[in-house]
Amino acid sequence: MLTQYDVSLTDDPPMNLVTPELGLIFWQTVIFLIVLFLLAKFAWRPILSSLKERETSIENALRMADQAKLEMQQLKASNEKLLAEARLERDRILKEASAVAAQHIEEAKNKATEEGNRMITQAREAIQQEKNMALAEVKNTAAQLSIDVAERILRRELTDAPAQQQLVDSYLKEVKLN
Amino acid sequence: MKRLFIALFCILSLPVFAQHTADTMTEASDSEAFKPGEMILHHIGDSHEWHWFSTDNDHFTTYLPIIAFQPGKGVEVFSSKHLAEGETYNGLKLEHEHLVAEDGGKVYDFSLTKNAFALLLSSVLMLILFISVGNGFKKRHGQAPRGLQSFFEPIIIFIRDEVAKKSIGPKYEKYMPYLLTVFFFIWFNNLLGLTPGAANLTGNIAVTFTLAAMTLLITLFSSNKNYWAHIFATPGVPKPLLIIMIPVELIGVVVKPFSLMVRLFANMTAGHIVTLSFISLIFIFRSLAISPASLAFGLFINILELLVAILQAYIFTLLTAMYIGGAVEEHHHDEADYQMEGDHIAPTAAH
Question: Which residues cross the membrane (chain B) (predicted)?
């Protein structure tokens, strides 16, 4: 037993451990290369390409989201601008309209005043004319009366003095009645 | 490094324990002595058969195919059952899991060993998993990930963004398939290696050697003018010093992948050795009383190994990406155009 054991101690197994064997190198090379080839073709290529694709699609999606956000902001800004412009326009139009209305009112007022004045003047003129005509008539009538009176007096001149006086008085009374 | 020391310590110290128990056991009984060193090396080593467990009378073993190539005789394929227990078949026999010809002729062993078989299994597992994940991406195009897809997606994105993009730069896409495959290959096999009964594939130097060689080849084939200019005319080094610097740099080209090979191999092997050593303590002391402590330590190391499994996969992938990044790097940091470089770097850093 002991001798057998001693022999096994000095045997070559430890040396075997660090000596590469040709057969296993051969199998390892062949099988590993086959595995490498098959995995590269059927596993790593689809895996890596779809990983890459997914990453680029995620990146694209993120970029597009950013872009959309930016566009939204721009849109919002332009909307606000439009709104502000519209408001300004409205204010302007309102102001203009009120100005025009005021002008119209003013014009109408002026026109009415003018017309009124004109009518008043016309009326005054007419009145004046009437008045003048009436005065002229009065004058004429007075003259006619005076002439009539004078005529009657002249007719009765010769009869008597009291009667003349009475006559004058009656004539005068007649005039007053007129 | 520390792990390597622990491993060495275990390898060196185990025979001491074993010696002690071997003495006691020969006195105690006639049954076969427990040899932890042998047991552990058997567990972490490769084998032509898949040994599940043994009872007192029976071995439960799956015999794997032997594929032997002998110059002149051609290729022979037969079950390893014919070579079990040191038997000879067609002039071939196994000596410490080493296929040799009885007549001393040269034999090339291309057998589907336990590791090669585990490699096949894990490769099939990886293919099924990741092709189904890939199909998920195709089927749910542009939709949220589901199931396995959502489990692996963050890891794939992590490798792409934190490892490939940062270390390689803008040309990272070309190297993504290799980096992803190597990462998941190492991680899966590290985890499978921790499964009881499974093979220690990533703790096998042939496997790590092949992976490191691939990294070296990819680095060399994608290297540009700058990379070689750095090696043959290191900027800022006086001309006479180049006599020393060129060999140093050339050695560096090989040492980088060599370190990858050793790091992964040593880490995984050491983890297995430590776990198995703690379990072996029960049998070494032949006492149940030791088992709680032994199990607690074994469990602790095993959980640590779960972390190491992904860590080593990450480190291997990261360093591979960094070596490739060094080979494809366009700008060089000469003092003259450092200022200009600074301007160049600024936008990429902001990324």
Answer: 116-137, 175-195, 201-221, 241-258, 264-285, 297-324
pLDDT in tens, B214-260: 999 999 998 888 888 888 887 788 888 888 888 888 999 999 999 99
CA distance B284 to A149: 190
Query: Among residues B145, B149, B157, which one has the least CA distance to residue B133?
Result: B149
Q: What is the 8-class DSSP label of residue B239?
A: G
Nearest to A23 among B113, B141, B156 (CB): B113
For residue B52, the SS3 value is strand
ipTM, interface predicted TM-score of the complex:
0.80
Q: Judge whether A7 is closer than 8 Å to chain B, CB to CB.
A: no
Q: Which amino acid is at B20?
A: H
pLDDT above 80 (res A43): yes
Residue A167's nearest CA partner among A151, A178, A156 is A156
Q: What is the CA radius of gyration of chain B?
A: 25
Whether residue A4 is contained in a domain is answered as: no
Show the beta-strand stretches assigned E in chain B. 49-54, 59-63, 65-70, 74-79, 88-89, 92-95, 98-101, 108-109
Residue A159 confidence class, pLDDT cut points 50, 70, 90: low
User: Is A158 a domain residue?
Assistant: yes
CB < 8 Å from B in window 51-80 of A: 51, 53-54, 57
For position B7, what pLDDT does the model report?
53
A3 is a domain residue: no
3-state secondary structure chain A: CHHHHHHHHHCCHHHHHCCCCHHHHHHHHHHHHHHHHHHHHHHHHHHHHHHHHHHHHHHHHHHHHHHHHHHHHHHHHHHHHHHHHHHHHHHHHHHHHHHHHHHHHHHHHHHHHHHHHHHHHHHHHHHHHHHHHHHHHHHHHHHHHHHHHHHHHHHHCCCCHHHHHHHHHHHHHHHHHC
- Å from B210 to nearest chain A CA? 6
Residue A147 lies in a domain: yes
| Lowest model confidence (mean pLDDT) among A119-123, B192-196, B263-267, B337-341 | B337-341
| Helix axis angle, B176-194 to B291-328, nearest 10° | 170
Query: Which residues form the domain of A109?
Result: 14-177
Q: Which residues of A touch B141 (CB under 8 A)?
A: 50
Direct distance between the N- and C-terminal alpha carbons of chain A, in angstroms, rounded to an integer:
191
Confidence of residue B3 (pLDDT cuts 50, 70, 90): low
Based on the structure, what is the number of domains in chain A? 1
What is the per-residue pLDDT for B32?
A: 60
CA distance A145 to A152: 10
Predicted local confidence at residue B14, as pLDDT:
43
Q: Is A10 on the interface with B (CB under 8 A)?
A: no
CA dist A171 → A156, A168, B132, B209 (Å): 13, 5, 153, 173
